[in-house]
Amino acid sequence: MKAVILAAGIGNRLKPLTDKMPKSLIKIGDRTVLERMLDSLVDLGITDVTIVVGHLKHMIMDLAGKDYRTAGCKYITNPDYELGSILSLYAARDEFAGEDVLLMDADVIFENKVLAKVIDSTNANCFLVDKNLKDAAQGEEMKVASLGGRVVQIARKVTREYDSIGEGVGFCKISSACSKELLKSLEKRICLNRLCDYEMALDDFCQRVSAGVEDVTGLKWTEIDFPEDVEKARAIAGGLL
User: Do 152 and 176 contact (CB within 8 A), yes or no?
Assistant: First the structure.
C-alpha cells in the first residue's frame, strides 16, 4: 500500500497564517502537521509516499525531501491548485493503478489508531467516520453516510437513505482494482465543474463500487480549517506526547 497526500491548497480560511506557509507546515507542538503525518505512516509501515503540492510547494519539498526516515517521497505538482481540490486528486490519478492507495488530506492531526483503522480494514475501499456529530444530516462537515455497511453518500448535505452517518476524517483507502472507476468519476466531475471538492468524485465513485466504513468515534483527531482548530490540534497533540 502507498500513500497519496493532498497538500496543494492555499488554506484561505487560515489566512494570513497561510500567506507565508502551507497549511501542512503549521507547527503543532514539536513538529509540523506534515511531519506528524509522515511519522505516523512510517510507524505503520507505509513507506511509499506521494505528495501533491502547489501553494508554496518548495517549502513542503524542502521539509520532507526525497527521503523521510524510511519513506521515499515523490512530488506531483498541481498547477491549478488555486481552483478546486478535485484537480489535486486528478493530478495524482496514475498513482492509483497497480497498488492500493491510502488517500489523505494534509491538514489532519490524529493518533496512530485512527490511521491504523483504515489501513487494517478488511474493506477493499474504505472511509473513516466519526459519529460524534451535532447535526448529523445538515451541518457543514463533510459527511459519510452508509446503509448496511456500504457508503451511499459523501456530502455536506445528506439526501439519500442511510442507517449510519459520521463526519469524514479525510482519509480513505482505494483499491487498485477500482482505480479505473475512480478515474471515470474524476473525469465526470471535472467536466461538470473544475472548481468542485474532490469528495464529489468520491461520492460518484461509491455509486460505482462497494465501499465500507470504519468507525473512529472516540479516537483523537481534528481537521485544521480555522484558527481555532490550530489550538485544538495542539491540545490533541499534547495528549499524544
Answer: no
Q: What is the CATH number of domain 2-240?
A: 3.90.550.10
d(CA 217, CA 202): 22
Distance CA 16, CA 106 (A): 19
Beta strand 71-77 with 48-53 is: parallel
Residue 139 per-residue DSSP state? S
Residues 6+ apart with CB under 8 A from 212: 121, 122, 123, 125, 126, 127, 146, 149, 150, 151
What local confidence, expressed as pLDDT, does residue 237 receive? 86
- Helix, strand, coil percent content, the chain, rounded in steps of 5: 35, 30, 35
Q: What is the pLDDT of residue 138?
A: 52
Can you tell me the distance from the alpha carbon of 106 to that of 18, in angstroms, rounded to the nearest whole number?
Answer: 14
Evaluate if residue 137 carries a pLDDT over 60: no
Mean pLDDT computed over 98-127: 96
pLDDT in tens, 53-66: 999 999 999 999 99
Task: Please report, for the chain, the start and end positions of each structural domain, with discontinuous segments joined by +.
Answer: 2-240
Residue 170: name the closest of 97, 94, 102 by CA. 102
Burial class of residue 74, CB neighbours in 10 A (0-12, 13-18, 19+):
middle
**Residue 241 in this model has a pLDDT that exceeds 70:** no
Give dist(CA 126, CA 49) in Å, integer. 19
**Closest by Cα among 169, 225, 156, 228 to 197:** 156
pLDDT of residue 139: 59
Residue found by looking up cell 455536506 in the block? 156
